[in-house]
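Quick one, C-alpha cells below:
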C-alpha cells in the first residue's frame, strides 16, 4: 500500500506495520545498538518527525517489535510443543532443549531481549511501558500454559517462574555468545581461552534443564517446618 499521508485508521495501521517491518529488516542486518531513528526513517521513506507520529521514540518501535517477535515465537511453540511419555526428568530435559533450540533460531528476538531492560524500556512514556508490561504478563501466562502441556507436574506458579528464567538467561547469554572481533582473535590466538566462549543454545538448555529439575525437587522435598506442609 502506497500513500503520502495516512488519513484513515487502516492507513495508519499499515504505516505502523511498515515501520515495524523495516525495523525487523534492519535488525537482520545489525544489532539493536546500531539501529538509529534517522536510518529507520530513511528506509521507511518518511521524515523522522513523521515516524514519531506513529511511535514516540526509537525504543518504542523496538519495544513493540519485541512484542511481535515474542507472539510469533509463542505461536511456534503452540504448534510444536507436544505432551510426550517419559519421566518428569526426561520430559523436562526435552522441554529445555526445545525452548533453547527455538530461541536460538530467532536471533532478532534474542537481540531485542538482551537489550530489553537496559535500552528498550528507557525513553518511553508510562503509557507505552504499561502496554508493554501487560503484554509481557500475557506472554508469561501463555508460555506457562505451553510448558504445562509438556510438564504438568510443575504447576502454574513454577511454570511461570521457568518462563521468566528463560527470558533472563536469554538476555544474559545472548551478548556473550556474540563476541566482537577482538575476542574472536584472542580465542584463535590462545586455544586455552576458547572454553570461555559461550555457546548460547547449550548454555540455555543446560540452565533450563537444571532449573526444571530444581523446581521439581523442591516440590517433592518441601522445607521442614513450613505450616501446612509435611517435612
Amino acid at each position: 500500500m502506497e500513500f503520502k499521508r495516512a488519513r484513515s485508521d487502516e492507513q495508519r495501521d499499515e504505516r505502523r506495520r511498515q515501520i515495524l517491518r523495516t525495523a525487523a529488516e534492519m535488525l537482520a542486518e545489525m544489532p539493536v545498538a546500531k539501529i538509529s531513528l534517522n536510518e529507520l526513517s530513511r528506509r521507511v521513506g518518511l521524515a523522522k518527525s513523521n515516524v514519531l507520529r506513529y511511535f514516540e521514540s526509537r525504543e518504542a518501535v523496538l519495544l513493540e517489535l519485541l512484542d511481535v517477535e515474542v507472539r510469533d515465537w509463542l505461536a511456534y511453540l503452540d504448534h510444536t510443543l507436544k505432551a510426550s511419555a517419559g519421566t518428569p526428568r526426561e520430559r523436562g530435559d526435552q522441554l529445555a532443549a526445545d525452548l533453547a533450540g527455538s530461541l536460538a533460531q530467532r536471533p532478532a528476538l534474542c537481540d531485542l531481549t538482551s537489550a530489553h531492560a537496559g535500552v528498550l524500556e528507557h525513553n518511553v512514556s508510562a503509557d507505552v511501558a504499561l502496554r508493554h508490561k501487560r503484554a509481557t504478563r500475557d506472554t508469561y501466562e501463555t508460555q506457562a500454559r505451553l510448558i504445562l502441556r509438556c510438564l504438568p507436574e510443575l504447576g502454574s506458579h513454577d511454570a511461570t517462574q521457568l518462563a521468566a528464567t528463560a527470558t533472563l538467561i536469554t538476555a544474559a547469554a545472548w551478548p556473550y555468545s556474540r563476541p566482537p572481533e577482538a575476542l574472536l582473535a584472542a580465542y584463535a590466538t590462545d586455544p586455552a581461552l576458547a572454553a570461555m566462549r559461550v555457546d548460547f543454545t547449550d548454555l540455555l538448555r543446560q540452565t533450563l534443564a537444571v532449573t526444571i529439575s530444581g523446581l521439581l525437587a523442591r516440590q517433592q522435598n518441601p522445607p521442614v517446618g513450613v505450616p501446612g506442609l509435611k517435612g
